[in-house]
Amino acid sequence: MKISLDWLRTLIPTDKPAAEIGQLLTGSGLEVEGIEELESVPGGLRGVVLGTVLTCQKHPDADKLSLTTVDVGDGQSRQIVCGAPNVAAGQRVVVALEGATLHPTEGEPFKIKKSKIRGAASEGMICAEDEIGLGTSHAGIMVLDTDLPNGTPAAEYFGLGSDSVFEIGLTPNRADAASHYGVARELRALLHQPCHLPDISGFHAPAEAAENIHVTIEDPEANPRYAGLLLTGVRVGPSPEWLQRRLRSIGLSPINNVVDVTNFVLHELGQPLHAFDADQIRGGQVRVKRAAAGEKFTTLDGTERTLQTGDLVIADATGTPMALAGIFGGQVSGVTPGTTRVFLESAYFQPAAVRRSSQTHQLKTDASFRFERGTDPHMVPVALKRAALLLQEVAGATVAAPIVDEYPVHIAHTPVRLRLTRVEKLVGQYIAPERIRQILTDIDILIAEERGDKSGVRSETNEVNDISHFSPLTSHLSQEWILSVPPHKVDVTREADVIEEILRIYGYNHVALRPHNSASFLARFPNPDPEVVRQNTARLLSGQGYSEIITNSLTNSAYFETEGQRDQTLVRILNYNSAELNVMRPALLPSGLEVVRHNVNRRQRDLKLYEFGKTYHQQPDGQFQEKNVLALYLTGNATAETWQHKTEKTTFHQLAGAVQQVLASLGFPQPTSQPVQHPYLAGGLTLLAQNQPVAHVGAVAGPMLKRLDVSQPVWYAELDWDWLMRKYRNTLVARELPKFPEVRRDLSLVVDKTVTFDQLQLIARRTEKKLLQHINVFDVYEGENLGAGKKSYSVSFLLQDPTQTLTDQAIDAVMQRLIQQFEQQAGALIRK
Fold first, then answer.
1. How far apart are CA 315 and CA 418, in angstroms?
2. Which of 1, 279, 293, 705 is a plausible cystine mate for 710, CB 3.0–4.6 Å?
3. Are 160 and 14 in contact (CB under 8 A)?
């Protein structure tokens, strides 16, 4: 969510710099992820000032140049060579000083330097409008008519301002802050200074009218409040510059003055609006109703959609849908350049109703974003009047009828009990009641009633941030307040929620540590520490070029279920904030593939990723199971292309090698393997340690890639981290370097295609346990000359005796035993 500081200052006057405001908002839970500086003119005309030409004479060595002296208000005149034909003594001009960087209307930026032009020193530049990016004229220098003193910044003269735009990572529970006014309310509490709504006192509507649009709410549970206003004499056209500038500052493109006003009010007050062409509302009636199954509806983007029975729509007198309530308008009833009569809608829709339709039709809009999280029903008429006044200003509109405000289901404030002793217990620190009262007032929570004995209230002279005034949590405070929480505080419904609000504004940084911390139990220090093992594993993978990711534990059930089949093992949740995140993930793979897709779609195709995370399952007996998993992803090219070699695609064996290194670091250096049995993998291996499947490695199956819209193959590995931690063995030992050389011998074995290298390795390890140090396959060959169903392994064996140099007789004896066992147990034929 983008918030403009200039816009914010129209609602709460503050001279605090953007960086400080960003810190305050982040500290209160509105995380500012970045601050972007916007300038009306690139460079902001820094280093460009007003000046006066004192003298002007021809350059002695150039007919078209003039030698001038210019006063720029610093007490000394500067000589500037100027090529403009209209320069003359006595003129007020725009001067770029030495060191200034100019951004012309066309061409690249350039820096003003002290120089010599045809032998004459020049200490600046007298500017034309195109040279400083203010226009396209280059006929001559700008000559000003002003009484401002020399040295005045040119940006001040031209009224050019800059703006800071906050990028706020809005969490789903902070629907109250999804607008400039919402953020202003937050700053009101943090700065303890007033903020105000836009002035709507100038709104006037006739007491009655011969013609109006009538509203009928057929489903008051889904639509508790609906208000509308008829405007006539509307002239649809471009918005004025100030309105376009406001929208562009937060990343919106202006469309026309009517639509721009609705977008402006949405981002200013957090209340979505919709403008209908009143002449397209048949029967002069608006009906809020449920759609009929299979009904066709074309939205403003020109897409024909098939409505479902549960969809809430805005329809005309005939029942024909004109808008998908709270989400998107219809093409037929939308405002066009020929529209002259507008019916302006402002409503409150039940979040679940909007969320269901938004998810069904895969439509996400600024309006649905707010309605799904919960808007303020009390803002409905305010936003309507604000938009009407703006349309009068920018589109010449006339209010033709009184506001229609249907409010069949009144949404009241929420009563919440607050015990001051509970505040101290949960916060861990005493906060003076008057400070709590001030915070609650600043965040619009009213104290409806006070109960209990006030004699236990401590003296307000104590400094609440002084840790010397801590007392036991069982203080004698018995005061209790009954609060009235306004509807825009959607997430505040319990005492704990209110205390969280108090703590946010009070400041987490103000909660000091107690002078004597203690615990009522002895901490258990397992050996090994699972967190240390996890960090070591993370370092191992990061050292191999893998990047760690962290994904959401909530995911979409559609990733795991085909149509008509319901998976009973999924842990389902009722998520009102995001209907598509409706289960706890049973596997890490889909959320990891979302990361892969995000990067591949942005041309980052070569990825090595890993994630430690939990999976969740429901058992047949109704119990829930959590499981810790380590997942690895490999896709794209293994190395970047260079002049020395071309790129190569990542392979199964690269990922399997990384998995085996992880297992070896955990004390399982030689896992066995079998063909993979995994629902989301198309081929691969399952690695076993102590006859227990501990890792699955393979290629992600095509249907899963298609379901996640991933356009390239992905290798995936999944390790049972819980089992590995239970069986972890720290096998790291130090030993003396061997004094005697190792010996290599190679064998070429022809075996059936069903024989794996793991089987050969197991045979070799059982046959020779003392001298065999390492076994490796360095070539695999299949061909017609081997015979049907056969393949050849070229295998190397490293032999070494730590106590003596191996003799040829000892080596030959070992190799003969190996050959004999390969022939007997694997049916191998030794190629000479």
1. 44
2. 705
3. no
Question: Residue 321 CB: number of other CB atoms within 10 A?
Answer: 26
Q: Is the pLDDT of residue 519 over 60?
A: no
Residue type present at position 750: V
Closest CA to 26 of 130, 174, 155, 133: 174
Task: Answer for the pair 610, 631: CB distance below 8 angstroms, yes or no.
Answer: yes
Model confidence pLDDT, tens digit, residues 388-402: 999 999 999 999 999
For residues 823 and 832, what is the distance between their CA atoms, to the nearest angstrom?
14
Q: Helices 433-442 and 495-506: crossing angle, nearest 10°? A: 90
Determine the 3-state secondary structure of 755 from DSSP.
coil
Q: Which residues pair with 168 in a beta bridge?
A: 32
Determine contact, residues 593/705, Cβ cutoff 8 Å.
Answer: yes
Full set of structural domains in the chain with CATH: 2-40+162-191 (3.30.56.10), 42-157 (2.40.50.140), 214-406 (3.50.40.10), 421-487+494-510 (no CATH), 530-726 (3.30.930.10), 743-831 (3.30.70.380)
Residue range 347-361: mean pLDDT, rounded:
93
Which residue in this structure is represented by tokens 């006063």? 71
DSSP state string for 513-528: PPSS---SSPPP--SS
3-state DSSP of 147-199: CCCCCCEHHHHCCCCEEEEEEEECCCCCHHHCCHHHHHHHHHHHHCCCCCCCC
Encoded tokens for 374: 């919960």
Q: Are 35 and 169 in contact (CB under 8 A)?
A: no
> What mean pLDDT is predicted for residues 624-640?
93
Cα distances from 368 to residues 260, 411, 723, in angstroms, run 17, 20, 44
pTM over the 0.90 mark: no
pLDDT in tens, 643-698: 888 888 999 999 999 999 999 999 888 888 888 888 899 989 999 998 899 999 99
Q: How far apart are CA 764 and CA 546, in angstroms?
A: 33
Across the strands, what pairs with 598?
none
Q: SS3 of 419, please?
A: strand
Dihedral pair phi/psi, residue 682, rounded to 5°: -110, 85
- Type of residue at 214: H
How far, in Å, CA of 72 to CA of 745, rounded?
88
Which helix (H) or strand (E) element contains residue 55?
strand 48-59
CA torsion sign for 252, 12, 442, 502 is: positive
Task: Give the SS3 label for residue 297.
Answer: strand
Q: Coil, strand, or helix at residue 378?
A: helix
Q: Encode pLDDT of 179-232 as tens digits.
A: 999 999 999 999 989 999 999 999 999 999 889 999 999 999 999 999 999 999
Strand partners, 418: 481
State the first-to-last Cα distance of the chain, in angstroms, to the nearest integer: 72
Cβ atoms of residues 493 and 485 within 8 Å: yes
